[in-house]
Design the sequence.
């Protein structure tokens, strides 16, 4: 614990995050994602972080994706720090009102968490707790504005803060979402509200991303392209059906099916997963060429082991200091 | 097209449970929202009578208000005209909105009045048996900025700054049958040449205006 306190103490004095400085240096940034435990075992956060930390410049902690309760993103971000990596703490507008946003933003800063990523949050009807009362007191744009407001030293009521936080703020966009023009404006709104970097929904067909990137040209924001390696055709079909905003082309699903055809058991599994990794690597190579893309955000979604494979396989390892 | 408070009948189990210790029942309904929603028109009062009779209850009769139970005078007149039946009753079953049930509670506090329906939302009825939500009475109307289409009641997340990332092909991420209202707003404002309304950031909403109990006192002019 003493070591941890020293680490956090150092982090407190950091005004620049590693993520921010790598963007500014023009590096092709790689971030990863660690799924928070579906329970109280914090060791899992540390283990999963250790698995990927040498392959990522920062690690996202998701926030109750699809309304399925997992360990709080703030708590997990703290353990990411403890495991020696830099967290990006996700905050969804679905489960917090403005009071809890302020409260958690103070707490996150106190614990050394600097990168905060805001999102609307999936509808709870898609998850395991559909009867819940959703909050949406703020939307992601207003939440960004709130975080930036706190950086000015007062709360929403105008009362002076006992300790002013400082964050590197991020947000998301989905190039597949409609209407595209409105989503392009939302990127601008998010930037104006305080977002400096963006992570996209998982990209498969890159043409829509290319078009979207033309739309936001000149916005002066950093963009990480979302990558989710496919474990198999079933997962791809599930994602198309159940994960909002995902569009996986049939062609990729067919490739996964073909890779496993005629094989059984572990052999089949390994061949199909290998093809999934191959698709992810090809996508990364393709997005590298799209003007305005500053890196990738690899979401393992329960398959964190894929992250080192993909990073090594695309020549993105070792990561810069 | 009709416009109304939209209601749904509670399950027969729920209704029997709330009337468990009561025998003589008077049913309330009206020819307004209650009839439009097929929960409290004459037909549904008759169905309810048959149902309750089948479970050993005695339905003494109906208080059916032409127009709507929201017409307080008409409701009072119907009650006064049927005072004998009201006095004989053990309980009242209201096949109209939550306001109607509470109106009966206030007019006839000596006996219990029970809701036969769940009041759902303010909406439209494009065709019989089909109702869609249109207003959530949030206390601060924004329709002048959105081309007359409400994002508070019609976006599954009540978002104010445009669609979330789950909006695809004009549909909402929540289910395949719900339109993305932000797509509708965008299309309409584009036609009206008023897209600037939604290009700028909308500030945080004052949700205190949406929470009850709310009272308004209009000054006489």
Sequence:
């Amino acid at each position: 614990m003493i070591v941890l306190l020293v680490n956090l103490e150092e982090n407190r004095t950091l005004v620049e995050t590693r993520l921010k400085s790598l963007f500014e240096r023009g590096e092709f940034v790689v971030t990863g994602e660690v799924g928070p435990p579906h329970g109280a075992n914090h060791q899992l956060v540390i283990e999963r972080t250790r698995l990927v930390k040498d392959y990522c410049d920062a690690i996202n902690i998701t926030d109750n994706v699809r309304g399925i309760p997992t360990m709080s993103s703030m708590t997990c971000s703290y353990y990411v720090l403890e495991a020696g990596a830099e967290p990006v703490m996700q905050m969804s507008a679905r489960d917090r009102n403005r009071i809890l946003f302020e409260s958690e933003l103070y707490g996150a800063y106190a614990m050394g968490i600097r990168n905060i990523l805001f999102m609307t949050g999936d509808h709870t009807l898609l998850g395991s707790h559909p009867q819940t009362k959703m909050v949406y007191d703020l939307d992601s744009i207003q939440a960004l504005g709130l975080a930036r407001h706190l950086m000015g030293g007062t709360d929403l009521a105008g009362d002076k803060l006992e300790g002013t936080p400082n964050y590197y703020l991020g947000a998301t966009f989905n190039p597949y979402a409609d209407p595209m023009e409105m989503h392009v404006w939302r990127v601008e709104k998010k930037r104006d509200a305080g977002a400096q970097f963006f992570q996209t929904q998982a990209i498969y067909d890159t043409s829509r991303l290319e078009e979207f990137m033309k739309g936001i040209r000149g916005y002066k924001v950093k963009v990480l392209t979302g990558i989710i390696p496919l474990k198999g055709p079933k997962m791809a079909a599930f994602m198309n059906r159940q994960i909002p905003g995902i569009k996986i082309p049939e062609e990729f699903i067919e490739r996964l099916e073909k890779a496993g055809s005629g094989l059984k058991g572990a052999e089949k599994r390994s061949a199909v997963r290998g093809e999934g990794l191959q698709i992810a690597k090809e996508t990364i190579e393709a997005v590298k060429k799209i003007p305005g893309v500053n890196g990738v955000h690899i979401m393992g979604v329960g398959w964190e082991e894929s992250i080192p494979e993909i990073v090594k396989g695309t020549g993105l390892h070792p990561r810069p200091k | 097209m009709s416009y109304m408070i939209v209601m749904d009948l509670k399950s027969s189990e729920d209704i029997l449970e709330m009337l468990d210790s009561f025998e003589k029942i008077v049913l309330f309904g009206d020819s307004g929202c209650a009839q439009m929603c097929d929960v409290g028109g004459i037909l549904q009062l008759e169905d309810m009578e048959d149902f309750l009779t089948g479970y050993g209850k005695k339905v003494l009769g109906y208080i059916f208000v032409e127009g709507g139970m929201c017409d307080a005078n008409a409701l009072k007149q119907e009650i006064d005209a049927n005072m004998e039946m009201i006095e004989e009753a053990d309980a009242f079953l209201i096949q109209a909105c939550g306001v109607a049930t509470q109106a009966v509670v206030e007019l006839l506090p000596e006996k219990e009045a029970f809701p036969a329906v769940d009041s759902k939302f303010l909406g439209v009825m494009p065709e019989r048996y089909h109702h869609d939500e249109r207003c959530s009475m949030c206390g601060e109307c924004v329709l002048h900025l959105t081309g007359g289409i409400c994002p508070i009641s019609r976006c599954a997340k009540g978002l104010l700054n445009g669609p979330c990332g789950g909006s695809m092909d004009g549909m909402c991420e929540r289910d395949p049958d719900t339109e993305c209202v932000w797509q509708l707003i965008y299309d309409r404002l584009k036609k009206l040449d008023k897209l600037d309304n939604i290009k700028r950031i909308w500030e945080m909403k004052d949700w205190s205006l949406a929470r009850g109990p709310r009272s308004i006192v209009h000054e006489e002019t």
Summary: The first helix of chain B runs from residue 12 to 18. Chain B has two domains: 2-120, 136-204. Residues 35 and 41 of chain B are 4 Å apart (CA to CA). The interface with chain A takes residues 156-170, 172-175, 180, 182-183, 186-187, 198-204, 207 of chain B (CB under 8 Å).
